[in-house]
Amino acid sequence: MLDYLRQLTGKQRSDRHDAHLAQFLSFIAGAANAGGFMAFRQYTSHMTGIASAAADALALGNMGAVSSGIAAISSFIAGAAVSAVLINWGRRKHLHSQYAMPLLFEALMLVCFGFFGAWLQSWQGIIIPLTVLLLCFIMGLQNAMITKLSDARIRTTHITGMVTDFGIELGKLIFINHKIGYEKPVRADRAKMHLLAGLILLFFLGGVIGALGFNYFGFNSALFLAGLLLVLAVMPISQDILAK
Which of 19, 61, 107, 235 is the most buried (most CB within 10 A)? Predict the structure, then answer.
């Protein structure tokens, strides 16, 4: 088990470890996203929806909503940037924990959300609750991490791309190949379909658990997600600490 955890978020990777890590993160993202919606009626990983809402608000002259959308998108971008900095720094230092560090940082942010979410919710800041900005930052952090780890093959904080890719492979699967000259037959990537279906299902399951958790335990439900991230990140980080 310890060796598995070490490889799951370590720098020595395989497609199997990428898939397993993506499954964990898809569940966590679904739970955090749903919990955020229960908290303040806004999904924090859906940048497309936030940008569309900001555009609508601009057309209607609601500058407060425009500013809120810009702040949310900026926070997501900041999270992605921090993830990239941590990973690239880890690569330069040849650390085993180059991918684990963003997960540790995400865990710490979720701990803050769990312990101080109710307090942060009361602080509107200038234009938007700090809890919204915090969750947008977390979603950007995680999405950038899995994007860099998988060379942009996998996303976990939203499923639009996953559903699209699944639909493409489904179209290939049902396509009828006729013998026409030397045309290469259309073949579905069944392994990819299996992975995508699992990620979509786990995101949905995470959403159910996240909504129920927030309904029963409030902001403290985020501590469970933080604990899961710590388990995923601890082995490569411990390996680097012991190597010093």
Answer: 107
